[in-house]
Amino acid sequence: MELSEDALIWIYDDFEQKAAAYKTDAACEKGCAFCCTDAGSIHITTLEGRIIRDTVARLPRQRRMALQKSLMKDMKKREAGRPSPCPFLMKNRACMIYAIRPFVCRRVYSTRTCTKGTPPILSRQVMALADRTIRELQALDDTGYSGHLSYILYMLGQPKFRDTYLSGDFKPEEVVAFGKRHGILINRMAGG
Ligand code: SF4
Known about the structure:
By secondary structure, this protein is mainly alpha-helical. The relative contact order is 0.18. The chain is built from 10 helices and 3 strands; from the N terminus they run ααβααααβαααβα. Helices cover 53% and strands 5% of the residues. Strands 1-2-3 form a 3-stranded antiparallel sheet. The model has no long low-confidence stretch (mean pLDDT 92). It has one domain. The chain binds iron/sulfur cluster. The site of iron/sulfur cluster has 9 residues, from loops.
């Protein structure tokens, strides 16, 4: 799994390098957090989820419990079709897991300041690069899945699923009902 993590970081860095030339006119500023509150689903792969989960496990107990509550709340709100900010967004509008934030948070930027009525504008080249990068991430996590962050972390919190995933087994039948309900993709089929 460590080799996969190295490969994951390599893929992130490769994207950053290739996209850098198109991002020079980005209007993004620290503390904006529009993408963390209003950008809809925060899609991650199970490999990214595992890294986030390992980081969360090292947090002090009280913080971990509060986060668990926020993740459950996020799931409930989304199931009810209500908007919900990312559970990792802190009160000061900084990201609790910035160093290991998933690719979905790395790909997005905007050439204008975002508001409710003015969503991000990205260059077509960066969108194409990001689509390619997502396929690479899904191929890297060949026995895994992709979906909204809270749902993927929930799946990884289930011992049966976690054991299957961590052992490298591939049993999509175990997650089919949850997957259908929550728009979970099978990487092997989505990434190609
Ligand atoms: S993980 Fe961090 S950067 Fe990504 S949406 Fe959540 S708070 Fe924002």
